[in-house]
Amino acid sequence: MILKALRDLRGFVIPAGFAWAMSAGLALNASGPSSQEPRGQESKVSPRRTVWDGVYTVEQATRGRTQYMQACASCHASDLRGDSTAPSLIEESFSFQWDDTTVGELFERIRMLMPSGRPGSLSSQSYRDIVAFILQSNKFPPGEKELDPDADALRQIVIVMKRPDG
What we know:
Cytochrome Bc1 Complex, Chain D, domain 2
């Protein structure tokens, strides 16, 4: 009796989980080299970096601050702490939502859903600049190169809230 109930539940939970993941905009593809690659060939995927590797520039974050104030601050507040309807984009709230995801996922989520009244209305560069400002606001260090315009490259940068040892 219990086994049958579990099997019936499994038939519901897996499709429901898939539907939730799709509605949340989560990528369900495997990251890293494909298991279909011929043996002995190097993967074309670069090793994953983290936000602690300096993935944006100060100049990019400065532009992002300007864009954020124009397009995002009315909901998420000028200090990025959000309000009763828009989530905070810094500290614990950001960590809870984005730890162990990628900059590419963050970029895509913002690009597809924001600003709430007119999603996708900013340029790709503006969205990358806003992401750089959010990273800077979460105290991740700047680097020498701006966030890459290539979506695959952004998906190789992992958001990890705790600085890796090293």
